[in-house]
Write a structure and sequence with these properties.
With 382 residues, the protein is α+β, with helices and mostly antiparallel strands. The chain contains eleven helices and eight strands. The protein has helices at 3-12, 17-38, 43-51, 70-83, 85-107, 109-125, 233-266, 274-301, 306-334, 345-352, 362-374; strands at 129-131, 143-147, 150-157, 168-175, 178-185, 191-193, 210-218, 224-226. Helix 2 (17-38) packs across helix 4, helix 5 (85-107) runs antiparallel to helix 7 and helix 7 (233-266) runs antiparallel to helix 8 (274-301). The protein is globular. It starts with a helix and ends in an 8-residue tail after the last helix.
């Protein structure tokens, strides 16, 4: 860490995480429209997150971080989304890959030695962790071909948000006898980012596909091997802790859309339909906020389990519905002015659509929750 970063980190220590996130959100807002227009990665914002200590905030204090818990990190992501949804979502993908090993370090003594090096890398070296996201859900993806002393990995991983800034890709591959979990250095010659992130919304996340062509994974570098086609305790941890962070970004986008639309509406005071639209928008937003609060409570208070997964995924569905509806109503409240890109609403309308596409999708979540309530098996529902 250079002297400038040390001075910035020392100053940040006297300012709360929420305050830093709010200040950065205002800075990021000035660049958000340009990144959206150009489809360019929010590289400057990632550099600022690192300088201000946010990328290491969830690392336990004993290992060089700030020891921020899932609720504090979710609040920071929500605040960042007021300024730039792409930055908030990409940062959530790094953050959940820090929160999960931090939880295991605190709660699973047998796993502490395995996860500690990654946490120290984040805190001490500024490493950025990448997730292969929904393309690597419980079923896994890619193939691991057995070789002497390990495996050769061949895969294409979609939706790798934050890829241009990434240090390690935390991912999986399917071997003959199970699904492997491991980290791949983004600088490895067998790893290549594809320039194919050209989307409706979240255009600044840099979520290009990552191709892995023959990377050798030594046996002692596989963090875990789990059975195919079923939930594993690790995925119960992932589902419980990651989604309150990811969906914090969508709550923040909806809140900022509400704020913009109200500012526009107040300039046209007296329109007969305004109170009804404002009331409906506020109700939809509150539903998303309350559901998200419940997700955070579950992550903080419940041990990861089938029950915690169900509770978080119910919240995920309700946040999706409430956040999208709130932004739709913000567009309606703003009337024709909301159609102009300069207003910032149409970008938020496009960005919030991303809430539809993370696991578990609606039909799967309803089957999972319904089966759990009825006492039926859920191990193969994902």
């Amino acid at each position: 860490m250079n002297t400038t970063m040390e001075m910035t980190a020392a100053a940040a220590a006297h300012e709360g995480l929420a305050e830093r996130a709010g200040r950065l959100a205002a800075e990021f807002a000035a660049r958000a429209e340009a990144h959206d227009r150009d489809g360019s990665f929010v590289a400057e914002n990632y550099a600022r997150l690192k300088e201000e200590g946010l990328t290491a905030a969830a690392v336990p204090a004993e290992l060089g971080g700030e020891g921020a818990d899932v609720g504090e990190m979710a609040d920071a992501i929500r605040r960042l989304a007021h300024g730039c949804g792409s930055t908030a979502l990409a940062f959530a993908m790094h953050t959940h890959q820090v929160v999960i090993p931090a939880w295991r370090w605190r709660n699973q003594p047998a796993a502490a030695a395995k996860v500690e090096p990654v946490l120290r890398l984040v805190a001490g070296k500024g490493a950025i962790l990448l997730s292969s996201g929904g393309g690597d859900w419980v079923g896994g993806s890619g193939r691991a071909e057995k070789a002497e002393g390990g495996w050769h990995i061949h895969a294409v991983k979609p939706f790798v948000s934050g890829g241009p800034a990434g240090t390690l890709l935390m991912t999986t591959a399917i071997a003959d006898d199970g699904i492997l979990h491991f980290a791949v250095p983004m600088t490895a010659p067998e790893v290549r980012r594809r320039d194919n992130w050209n989307t409706l919304g979240m255009r600044g996340t840099g979520s290009d596909d990552v191709a892995i062509d023959g990377f050798f994974l030594a046996e002692d570098k596989a963090a875990l091997k789990r059975p195919k086609g079923e939930w594993h305790p690790l995925f119960q941890i992932i589902a419980t802790l990651a989604f309150p962070l990811i969906y914090a970004a969508y709550v923040g986008i909806a809140e900022s859309a509400r704020d913009i639309a109200l500012g526009m509406a107040r300039k046209r005071a007296g329109e007969a339909r305004q109170p009804r639209l404002v009331g409906e928008m506020e109700t939809a937003l509150r539903a998303a906020q309350i559901a998200h609060r419940r997700m955070v409570e579950v992550a903080r208070d419940m041990a990861p389990s089938a029950e915690s997964v169900s509770e978080v995924m119910i919240g995920r569905q309700l946040v999706e519905q409430g956040a999208i509806r709130a932004v739709e109503l913000a567009m309606e409240l703003a009337a024709g002015q909301g159609f102009y890109r300069a207003a910032g609403l149409e970008r938020r309308f496009r960005d919030v659509q991303g809430a539809r596409y993370h696991p578990m999708r609606r039909e799967v979540q309803r089957l999972y929750t319904g089966s759990l309530v009825l006492g039926d098996p859920v191990a193969n529902i994902y």
